[in-house]
Design a protein that fits this description.
The structure holds two protein chains of two kinds. By secondary structure, chain A is an all-alpha fold. Chain A has 14 helices and two strands; from the N terminus they run H-H-H-E-E-H-H-H-H-H-H-H-H-H-H-H. In chain A, strand 1 and strand 2 form a beta hairpin. In chain A, helix 3 packs parallel to helix 7. The longest helix of chain A has about 35 residues. Chain B folds into two domains: about 190 residues, 3-Layer(aba) Sandwich (Rossmann fold); about 80 residues, 2-Layer Sandwich (Alpha-Beta Plaits), CATH 3.30.70. Helices cover about 35% and strands about 30% of the residues of chain B. Chain B is built from twelve helices and 13 strands. In chain B, the strands form three sheets. Chain B has a six-stranded mixed sheet with strand order 5-6-7-3-8-9, with helices on both faces. In chain B, strands 11-12-10-13 form a four-stranded antiparallel sheet. In chain B, strands 2-1-4 form a three-stranded antiparallel sheet. Chain B is globular and about 75 Å long. The chains are: A mainly alpha, B alpha/beta. Chains A and B meet through helix 1, helix 2, helix 5 and helix 14 of A and strand 1, helix 2, helix 3, strand 5 and helix 4 of B.
């Protein structure tokens, strides 16, 4: 390819998307190869994930043995919510967990250098290089939960609700990713923070309960600032037909805003990285 | 043809935190930090033409890696202008990134858990290399580096030398026109060092690629590079042919003599500096201008069995250059 052709290829946004799709496909392929190479490891982690999912259901069944409903959420709705929670968390982990763990390593060991010289969007590459395919069984188990919950409720959501649910789950994943990425990006300033990749877990844990149980300041915080409500409450309500439309729109906008903020922070961080080190 | 690399008055400073020694010092550092500006690169200028193979020499911390990182677009300069193939590297444009490569001997881009071929396929996607070109280049690299048996073995199971070969291949799959090699032979044994050198030369000749190479091993530079850049304390102290600097700084010769009967050290010291001595053998450092006169004196005064006059080692010369700077 001549330089002019290359330049044209780079300036043409469609081919840029194709290019990134090809990179992503190559990453998926490589991850698949890796998971297959370590079959025992894959099975063990998959088993642990599914067990954890079952335990969260058992815990909830135990609680609802004592109360019938919390803030308008009865056991069957809670099954949908828990399934959604597990779905969002396991998909987020599947797509990003290993990348976030690796990112702080790249920065500390200087391996970011060899990534930054590649002709690819660096945030895209560091965020998508690895997949944790062993999360897939948990995600599937979560879908079964949601189905069981719906059946017990006697609900059959229409296409609009299913679409809304998918969009809300996608927004939740984007929001979580952006927050996670921004947390880890802080390493560009501080140098080293042990276990920063796990800093977001407590926030995610709050989403095990519906956002409606919180009152006052906490509710504002978990609904509008940290996207805790977006993780489980908003998608579940969308599926159950309980969601106010503005809340769905807000969730989508928040996801986009957080994503934009994460790219901005990465750019600023890289500028600092390339001016502060030697 | 336009030069590959143009560097004009490049400077790069950075701030470091000066930690006071001891526990008290650490505590003080929490509250009040003292910083110092370090001049990693200080007003350096040079131009490299396409196809040149240039060695970058200097002691640790002289500014070699920092300069390479600026050229690769990883660091912004504090002052000065840089152009690589006509691009400003720190804008990190894909059009430039497709045309150069960076190899750091102590860092790896290969996937640890997987065979090298998987990393190569990823790079094929990253650099958007068409399938036929990819296969052709990989075959060539595999041939030059004897990679064939390594391609399907997990990287973690490779030896350091094998891994470096695979590392180089990963860095060259997109047939870069400019190579920045930072200590590519570090930690390798002598045989493997030589293989890597032969490979770099072959690549340079086959693709007319521009190569800028840093190394601690003088042999790398001696064998590969006609031209050297020598930096010390961030400043460029020499830019030119390696032989020229040896001639310029070599104001002495080394004379090795073997004797038929024991000779006293003090007696030899009258002729010149004694570098090594045992009663039957001595090594002397003599001024170049006086070499024949002193050699004649030696033959006259001592029972000389054998005598040899040697060019100084490049290492010694370079050490001398650093000493002066």
């Amino acid at each position: 390819m001549s330089r002019e052709q290359r330049k044209a290829a780079i300036q043409n946004p469609k081919s840029k998307i194709q290019n990134h799709a090809a990179v992503y496909l190559a990453c998926v392929r490589t991850c698949l190869a890796r998971e297959l190479a370590f079959r025992g490891h894959f099975l063990l982690l998959a088993l642990a994930g599914v067990t954890w999912t079952l335990l969260s259901l058992a815990l909830m069944a135990f609680l609802f043995g004592r109360v019938t409903a919390v803030a308008g959420w009865n056991l069957d709705r809670m099954i949908v919510l828990t399934g959604t929670y597990v779905l969002v968390v396991s998909l987020t982990n599947l797509l990003f967990a290993r990348n976030m763990q690796h990112l702080s390593e790249y920065i500390n060991k200087g391996e970011l250098d060899l990534i930054l010289v590649k002709p690819v969007n660096s945030q895209f590459f560091v965020s998508t290089r690895f997949l944790s395919l062993h999360e897939l069984p948990s995600a599937l188990a979560a879908l079964v939960y949601v189905g069981v919950g719906l059946q017990r409720l006697g609900l059959q959501p229409g296409p609009l609700q299913v679409l809304g649910y998918a969009a809300a789950v996608a927004s939740a994943i984007v929001s979580l990713y952006a927050l996670w990425f921004m947390t880890v990006t802080l390493v560009l300033w501080t140098g080293r923070i042990e276990n920063i990749a796990y800093a977001l877990e407590p926030v995610m844990d709050v989403a095990r309960v519906p956002a409606d149980v919180f009152r006052g300041l906490l509710r504002v915080l978990f609904t509008f600032v940290l996207p805790v409500a977006m993780i489980s409450t908003v998608p579940s309500k969308a599926l159950l037909g309980l969601l106010e439309p503005w809340m769905g729109i807000y969730a989508a906008l928040l996801a986009l805003a957080l994503l934009w903020a994460s790219t901005h922070l990465w750019r600023v961080g890289l500028r600092r990285y390339s001016s502060a080190s030697s | 043809m336009a030069p590959s690399i143009v560097v004009e008055h490049l400077s790069r400073y950075y701030r470091v935190y000066r930690k006071q020694p001891g526990l008290l010092g650490s505590l003080r550092g929490l509250v009040h930090r003292q910083y110092a500006d370090v001049r990693a690169v200080d007003d350096v200028s040079f131009t490299i033409e396409q196809g040149e193979l240039v060695g970058f020499l200097g002691p640790n911390g002289a500014g070699k890696t920092t300069t390479l990182k600026v050229l690769a677009g990883l660091l912004h300069p504090s002052a000065g202008q840089v152009a690589v193939l006509g691009f400003t590297p720190w804008r990190r444009e894909a059009a430039l990134q497709r045309q150069f490569t960076l190899v750091m001997g102590q860092k790896s881009q290969l996937w640890w858990d997987l065979p090298p071929i998987e990393s190569y396929l990823l790079n094929q996607a990253l650099y958007d290399i068409p399938e036929p070109t990819f296969r052709e280049t990989l075959a060539e690299l595999a041939d030059l580096l004897d990679l064939e048996p390594l391609l399907h073995i997990q990287v973690r199971k490779l030896s350091l030398g094998e891994r470096m070969k695979c590392e180089l291949a990963a860095a060259l799959l997109h047939r870069p026109r400019v190579l920045f090699l930072d200590e590519p032979t570090i930690g390798l044994d002598v045989v493997m060092q030589k293989k890597m050198r032969d490979f770099v030369r072959a690549y340079n000749q086959r693709y007319q690629a521009t190569v800028l190479l840093t190394s601690h091993y003088m042999d790398d530079v001696k064998e590969l590079c006609d031209r050297v850049l020598i930096v010390n304390h961030g400043k460029l102290v020499y830019d030119g042919r390696l032989e020229a600097i040896v001639a310029r700084y070599a104001d002495h010769r080394v004379l090795v003599a073997a004797f038929e009967a024991p000779v006293a050290r003090q007696a030899l010291a009258e002729l010149g500096e004694v570098l090594a001595w045992d009663p039957l053998r001595a090594t002397l450092r003599l001024p170049r201008a006086a070499i024949s006169e002193r050699a004649a004196l030696l033959l006259e005064r001592f029972p000389v069995a054998d005598l040899a006059i040697q060019e100084p080692q490049v290492e010694d010369v370079i050490r001398q250059v650093f000493g002066e700077a």
